[in-house]
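Per reviewer request, we include the raw input and output of the structure prediction for the construct analysed in the revised manuscript.
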Amino acid sequence: MNFRLGLAIWGYKGWLGDLFPSGSRASEFLRLYGQRFRVVEGNTTFYSIPDSKTVARWAAETPAGFEFCLKLPKTLTHQGALAPAMPGVIQFLDQMQGLGDRLGPMFAQLPPGYGPDRFTDLEAFLTALPRDSQKFALEVRHLDWFREPYSSQLTALLNQLGVGRVLLDTRPIYDLPEAADDPQVASERRKPRVPLQAEITAEFSLVRYISHPDLALNEGFLQQWAVQIDAWLSQGKRVYFFVHCPLEERSPTNARCFQQMLERRGSPVPPLPWNQLAQASTQLSLF
């Protein structure tokens, strides 16, 4: 169970008839999602903080073993210095405790303008996090974080503190010569073009894979990820792999195909609940 595969969100009307049964109501999306995947990347908390009643409902509507990997609110990570935001982080964490054992690692996504010139502030912020009671990961977007000497400095800090590094893989939407058209044209939010540094700095890693809408164009990248994930799992690491797509309708299918790829190569990954649900439905239909 050291591998978890999921999507960036749990509810999207375009998934009706595919991930969700046709005619499903929006109020049912989280429950239905939890029957098909074991984890979700909680982008919703980046834009608004849910109240305690909502958090309790999230926990009640998901099965045992399900995890939310929540993103810290942008009001805490995108307002300048990070260290002064720590009281708000503690308050947010306290409120999310209503998820109980459904609460997975949290992560902070830093804005593109937050660079190595703020290393002291970042170090103070990460050091002050309640890391004994909650796992945290960090996503950086300023390009200097991917260059030396700053790349090594950041890696050393994360290793020292046991903070995971969020691995953002945007290669499928930027690096393919056969995909000249920008697949993000119809997307509401463009992903940054940053180098991929496939390093684990804690006992776990969060991978955000930005898939190309054309499923076939993802195969080479997913094959590379399958090899890397096998290596990490053999080391006892825990991997959370989230599939995004500029055309959100295609995220579930792209994720499902990656699961099938892992299973074909014999990777030590648990079955995907979505597949088990489909198999059970097929067997029932035979009777």
